[in-house]
Every structure is written in structure tokens, then in C-alpha cells.
């Protein structure tokens, strides 16, 4: 049994950073001599350490799951799920959320200083996988003194990490919540990511990734990448509802190439605000990690073998308007879980917001997750 | 909490600590009672999303799925019992569903409304209309019961397939019906089968 951590334990709280000794050997064969991880914790770890919940964030997410973003000042990205009276509640749970390996919010990534050279890694940062991200999180939990997780929870790429957690560290995960996710990236998923990467690399300011010393980074390319990706997070019906063919602050078409349509203006705004908070090289590395993700491939080609003998309880949720990771992807995971005999729950919820539904106001999602987590306790 | 009479019969005959798959589990009423009273490890399959959400929200392991397509993914003899209540008559291929049940469950409970019940017969004979009774409350154009059957039909069906009957229970409302006239007197039937 773990000793109860002191309330003033400096490992716990908002805006934490730790440098963990390596080497961390990566799936690609390279290794990192040390790993810096930026993370936050909420709530208090029980004396028996049984109430820890790890939240895994999506592609461009960060550790600020329920606290204001330091650059944008916006509230945490999942305050609907995490907070007082919410399904994941700091009054009951000890919540950990860490910036993923390869990202740019304080965890080691291409923008970090390479200790071997004293300058940013840029494209010398090793290509990583989702399993590498999860291994880094496991090192963090070791550092925090958390062996066993009451639950690992995530949507989209966060859900993929949850699956990796359950497959890689089955004994550490009692419950797994996988929302709007998949066990592998499809050809279409890879295709959209490749468009984004090519947009970044086609920007002359990308300079082979060596832009950290220059005044201008590949903002235009990254903005285009974000615009294309953002479309995949929404639904056709959602876009029609929100914008239709309405014009942006004008009475008629300009017969030019300004953002005549509201939807164009919206996407441009999404692109521009994204480049202020995200590193272009991190975008390349994390999209690559997602494209390489194929959990079945890691287990001899049979997804059920990833969960063989698993004692973890699983809860999967998909959304009917999500065409990025459609219900069929969740269903394939459920079939594998059924084949392996794992305890699994799954429901496809109806929501109009496309893939982004997991972040938005879908009350049924919170009812399902709340009930699932309470039953685990 | 009082279970529907056919479910109560099933609940009474599941052994302590069994592994159970409840197909068409609704909001998980039978599952919850098997878990709480029988210490069973219960899984459910249900088509309706609202029902699945309610079942998951009460802590049960239920997957949204279709009895006709999703049973294929369970291994042979994965469960001590597979339960199919009030669903066989709604299946497109009841014969395939039954053989899947017998593959994944060592024992199988099947319950269904009896189309040979005397009120059904009377309604058809004297009224000349498709029957609407307490057990079959929906008009012909709305009913999901596309493969209506009688108790004798079911007996013939399983006999042809060499399926062994381990138990059978017949109900009229909540009352138990015994004797040879079940096909006439019973509104519902519950069978316990094995290969």
C-alpha cells in the first residue's frame, strides 16, 4: 500500500513539469536519453491509490483538461467531462493529464532542446508511435507513485492511447473509456493527415523543420493543414446548419477570392488561431504517430489478441455523425473484445456535431461515462 | 423490483456464478438481477441505443448490436447460458440465431409469445383479423414479430435439429400453465435448451 502523499507534494497540482531519466527506447529503434513531461493533476490520491484516472488528449490537445490554457486563456478542453459534479470529478478522482510525447506544450518534442547539441531537435527528433506516448505516460505515473489506474479515458487519439494502455499495461488499467476512436488509422485517415503534412512542408518557411531560429515559421502551411483537418472533425449537416451558404458580412458575392462565405471565414479563423498555439513540427510528428497506429498489427494481426486475458472493463462510445472514426471502427474493437472475452460496453450515440461530438454537449455521453465509472468504483 | 414472469423463471434457473449473455437485454433488468442475486458475470447485447445507455449507466456490460450479425464474434462456449427472451420471433433468420446461441452458450434460454394461445386462435377464427392480445399488443403493420410461432412449432423446430430440451415453462399472464394443453392455454413459453 502506498503512503498517502502530503497535500503539499510538489509532484501534484496544475502546470507541473518533470524531467524523467531515460533512456526511453522507442518503437522506431531510436531512444531518448531523457524525457520532459508537462502534466496536471486534480483532486487527491486516496491512501490506497485506487482513485487515479488518467485522461489522454487528442492530436492537438494538451494537459489543460480542466484548467485555462496558458496561451489562449480559454477554459480547459474537457470541462464538460472533468470537474465538480462531472463524470470525472476531482472530489472523487485523482486526475492526471499529461501532454503527449512529441507535442509542444512542455513535453519533449521536436521543439525541445536536444541535450546532445544544445539546439532544438527539429526533424532530428525520432519518429514516435502512440505506444511510445503511452510508455512515457507510464514513466510519469511511476514517478507519481501510481501503479494502478481506476480508469484511462480519452477521445479520438486519446482513445487510441487508452487502447494502447489496455494492451500494453493490462494489469495497470481497471477500466478503459474509448470515445470516438479506432484501433488503427484507415487509408482515409492517413490521406487527410498527408494533406496536412504536405501543406506544412510546402510552406517555404518550414525550411526542412529548421525554423525555430527564424522570425517566421510555416504558419500558412500549418493553418491550411488545420483547416483541412477541421472539416473532418465536423459533419456535413453540422456545417450546413451552422453556415449554409450564408455570406460573411456582405450583401453579395464579391467575384473575388476574399472569404465571401461564412464557412470560409470560420475555417480561416480556425487555421490562424491554431498556429498561435501549436508547433508545425509537432503536428508532423503526432499525425505520423497516428498514421502508424494499428493495434492489431502490434499483436500478430489479430486485434482480439491485444486484449487476450484482459481483466480491464471497456466502455466504447461512437457518434452517428462522426465520419472520421465512424461507428464501424468502434464496432470492430467491440467484436475483438467479445472474441477475447473482455467485459465491454458499447453504444453509438446520436449527435449532430461529427467527430467533435466527444468534446461537445452530448448529455447521453456523460450519463454513460458517469454510470460506467461509478460501477467500476 | 419484480421481473417480467418469463424473466423471473430464467433468473430462478441460472446457476450461481455463471457466465451469461443476455441477448436483447433491454435496459438490463434481468442482467442486474442475475448479477445481484446470482453473482453471475453477465454481458448483454441490445439494439436500442437508449436502452444500452441506461444499462451501461447502471454499471452493466452491454454492447449495442444486432442478434443476427454480432453473435458471430463470440467464441464457442463462451458462456454458460445464452438468453434470448421475446426476440426469436423478430429475427429474420430464427434458425441461424438459434444455432449461434447453441454455439456460444452451453445452455440456452429461449422465451417467446405463443401464437397457438386460445385467445389468438379465437381472434383469428371468429374475428378474421390478425390478433392483438396482451402478449401481442401491436397491429400487423407495426409488429416486429415477423416469424410468429406456436409452442408446437417450436418443439418440432428443435426436434428436427436434435436440440435437447432441459426444461420448459408455460405462462398465462403471471400464472404457470402445466400439462399437455400448453399450446392452447399458454400465452408465453420459456425453454431451456442444449446441443
TrEMBL record, chain A:
A GO term, aspect molecular function: homoserine O-acetyltransferase activity
InterPro entries: AB_hydrolase_1 (IPR000073), AB_hydrolase_fold (IPR029058), HAT_MetX-like (IPR008220)
Residues noted as binding substrate in the record, renumbered to the chain: 226, 356
Domain AB hydrolase-1: 51-359
Pfam families the record matches: Abhydrolase_1 (PF00561)
Family listed: Belongs to the AB hydrolase superfamily. MetX family.
Quaternary structure note: Homodimer.
Protein's recorded name: Homoserine O-acetyltransferase
Organism: Sphingomonas natans
Upper classification of the organism: Bacteria, Pseudomonadati, Pseudomonadota, Alphaproteobacteria, Sphingomonadales
Gene: metXA
UniProtKB/TrEMBL annotation, chain B:
Lineage: superkingdom: Bacteria
Coiled coil: none
Pfam family, one: MetW
InterPro entries per UniProt: Methionine_synth_MetW (IPR010743), SAM-dependent_MTases_sf (IPR029063)
Entry-linked Gene3D superfamilies: Vaccinia Virus protein VP39
Protein name per its UniProtKB record: Methionine biosynthesis protein MetW
Lineage of source species: Bacteria, Pseudomonadati, Pseudomonadota, Alphaproteobacteria, Sphingomonadales
Encoding gene, per UniProt annotation: metW
Amino acid at each position: 500500500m502506498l503512503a498517502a502523499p502530503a497535500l503539499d507534494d510538489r509532484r501534484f497540482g496544475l502546470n507541473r513539469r518533470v524531467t524523467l531519466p531515460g533512456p526511453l527506447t522507442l518503437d522506431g529503434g531510436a531512444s531518448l536519453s531523457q524525457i520532459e513531461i508537462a502534466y496536471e493533476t486534480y483532486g487527491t490520491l486516496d491512501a490506497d491509490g485506487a482513485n487515479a484516472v488518467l485522461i489522454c488528449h487528442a492530436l492537438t490537445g494538451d494537459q489543460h483538461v480542466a484548467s485555462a490554457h496558458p496561451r489562449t486563456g480559454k477554459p480547459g478542453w474537457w470541462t464538460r467531462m472533468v470537474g465538480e459534479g462531472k463524470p470525472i470529478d476531482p472530489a472523487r478522482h485523482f486526475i492526471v493529464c499529461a501532454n503527449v510525447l512529441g507535442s509542444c506544450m512542455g513535453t519533449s518534442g521536436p521543439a525541445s532542446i536536444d541535450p546532445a547539441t544544445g539546439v532544438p531537435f527539429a526533424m532530428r527528433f525520432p519518429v514516435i508511435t502512440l505506444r511510445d506516448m503511452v510508455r512515457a505516460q507510464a514513466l510519469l505515473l511511476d514517478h507519481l507513485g501510481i501503479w494502478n489506474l481506476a480508469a484511462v479515458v480519452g477521445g479520438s487519439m486519446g482513445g487510441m492511447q487508452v487502447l494502447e494502455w489496455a494492451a500494453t499495461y493490462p494489469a495497470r488499467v481497471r477500466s478503459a473509456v474509448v470515445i470516438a476512436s479506432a484501433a488503427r488509422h484507415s487509408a482515409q485517415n492517413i490521406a487527410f493527415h498527408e494533406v496536412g503534412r504536405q501543406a506544412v512542408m510546402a510552406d517555404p518557411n518550414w525550411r526542412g523543420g529548421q525554423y525555430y531560429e527564424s522570425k517566421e515559421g510555416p504558419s500558412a502551411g500549418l493553418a491550411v493543414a488545420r483547416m483541412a483537418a477541421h472539416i473532418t472533425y465536423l459533419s456535413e449537416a453540422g456545417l450546413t446548419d451552422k453556415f449554409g451558404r450564408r455570406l460573411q458580412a456582405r450583401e453579395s458575392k464579391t467575384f473575388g477570392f476574399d472569404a465571401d462565405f461564412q464557412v470560409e471565414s470560420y475555417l480561416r479563423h480556425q487555421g490562424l488561431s491554431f498556429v498561435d498555439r501549436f508547433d508545425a513540427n509537432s503536428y508532423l510528428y503526432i499525425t505520423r504517430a497516428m498514421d502508424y497506429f494499428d493495434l492489431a498489427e502490434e499483436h500478430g494481426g489479430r486485434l482480439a489478441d491485444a486484449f487476450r486475458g484482459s481483466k480491464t472493463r471497456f466502455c466504447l462510445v461512437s457518434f452517428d455523425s462522426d465520419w472520421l472514426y465512424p461507428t464501424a471502427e468502434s464496432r470492430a474493437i467491440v467484436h475483438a473484445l467479445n472474441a477475447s472475452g473482455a467485459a465491454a460496453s458499447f453504444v453509438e450515440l446520436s449527435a449532430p456535431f461529427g467527430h467533435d461530438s466527444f468534446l461537445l454537449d452530448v448529455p447521453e455521453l456523460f450519463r454513460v461515462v458517469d454510470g460506467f465509472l461509478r460501477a467500476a468504483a | 423490483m419484480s421481473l417480467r414472469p418469463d424473466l423471473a423463471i430464467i433468473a430462478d434457473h441460472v446457476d450461481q456464478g455463471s457466465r451469461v449473455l443476455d441477448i436483447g437485454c433491454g435496459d438490463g433488468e434481468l442482467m442486474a438481477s442475475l448479477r445481484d442475486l446470482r453473482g453471475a458475470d453477465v454481458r448483454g447485447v441490445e439494439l436500442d441505443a437508449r436502452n444500452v445507455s441506461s444499462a451501461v449507466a447502471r454499471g452493466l456490460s452491454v454492447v449495442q448490436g444486432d442478434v443476427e450479425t454480432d453473435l458471430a464474434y463470440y467464441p464457442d462456449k463462451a458462456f454458460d447460458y445464452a438468453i434470448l427472451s421475446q426476440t426469436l420471433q423478430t429475427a429474420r433468420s430464427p434458425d441461424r440465431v438459434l444455432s449461434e446461441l447453441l454455439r456460444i452458450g452451453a445452455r440456452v434460454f429461449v422465451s417467446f409469445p405463443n401464437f397457438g394461445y386460445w385467445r389468438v386462435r379465437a381472434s383469428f377464427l371468429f374475428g378474421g383479423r390478425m390478433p392483438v392480445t396482451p402478449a401481442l399488443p401491436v397491429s400487423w403493420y407495426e409488429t416486429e414479430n415477423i416469424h410468429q410461432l406456436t409452442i408446437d412449432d417450436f418443439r418440432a423446430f428443435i426436434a428436427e435439429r436434435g436440440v435437447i430440451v432441459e426444461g420448459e415453462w408455460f405462462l398465462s399472464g403471471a400464472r404457470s400453465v402445466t400439462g399437455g394443453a400448453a399450446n392452447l392455454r399458454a400465452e408465453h413459453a420459456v425453454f431451456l435448451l442444449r446441443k
